[in-house]
Amino acid sequence: xxxxxxxxxxxxxxxxxxxxxxxxxxxxxxxxxxxxxxxxxxxxxxxxxxxxxxxxxxxxxxxxxxxxxxxxxxxxxxxxxxxxxxxxxxxxxxxxxxxxxxxxxxxxxxxxxxxxxxxxxxxxxxxxxxxxxxxxxxxxxxxxxxxxxxxxxxxxxxxxxxxxxxxxxxxxxxxxxxxxxxxxxxxxxxxxxxxxxxxxxxxxxxxxxxxxxxxxxxxxxxxxxxxxxxxxxxxxxxxxxxxxxxxxxxxxxxxxxxxxxxxxxxxxxxxxxxxxxxxxxxxxxxxxxxxxxxxxxxxxxxxxxxxxxxxxxxxxxxxxxxxxxxxxx
Length: 329
Hints:
Blueprint (H helix, E strand, L loop, with lengths): L4 H6 L5 E3 L8 H9 L4 E4 L6 H14 L4 E7 L7 H14 L3 E6 L2 H15 L3 E6 L2 H10 L3 E5 L14 H11 L4 E4 L5 H9 L4 E4 L1 H4 L8 H9 L5 E4 L7 E4 L2 H11 L4 H8 L1 H10 L22 H21 L3
């Protein structure tokens, strides 16, 4: 087995972590990934009340006794308030979850150094998803346990520094002493092997987990990800300071047209709001919402179980690492 600082930190088989996915990273998928030897993700923003969030954590634990991450996005939102953020953190501390993936505003700026210390005392590992060396250095100084180095290829909200995974991973690995996890463009064993050779201790991916049997999304969406190629995503939201990457489709074309006309938040929010995305995941309409996926869709060729995916990635990574070593013999 491939052993890294991440597998040792969490006691998992594979250094493969699921990233936060609004509406999709729910207990069944989270538990399936963790039970299969990876690190599942339960996205906090799926839940608007403390009871619902806590019940979701308990449901994951009923399905598996393996560790999992909580995805916490600290970005401007109409639906999720600052009070929600504080509630999510408190519940994570009380439930002593294995770890939190923080995106957006650094968690220490939201809850203060004392809040970070409370989480650490509760055994909660903190990872900040960043797109720059400067943000990684801040996370290390603030006491985080690891870094997600998220390149421009990722779906969701890559930093507008626009640095690719191939450059960002080694830059951050060289800059910090805590474990680094590569994000962006990861979907198979070759990309896992590449990340490890760049100095990462693991990988985080999200788009690839959509095309699994356990992901509760309409089959049309899974078929579309298999059909689409790596060049069929678009960056949007630069004009409002909320850059995103999503599948090229009708609604993204409308968003880009609105931006070109100088439309601000009022023009864009009706097109990119979370409820619209939720409806699309459920209905299978691939044209009417910003489906936040990364360039790694070019590496997705079939729908498989989480267990089959993780084992195949691990075995393929081993083979590619062995081939690399054989070049010296």
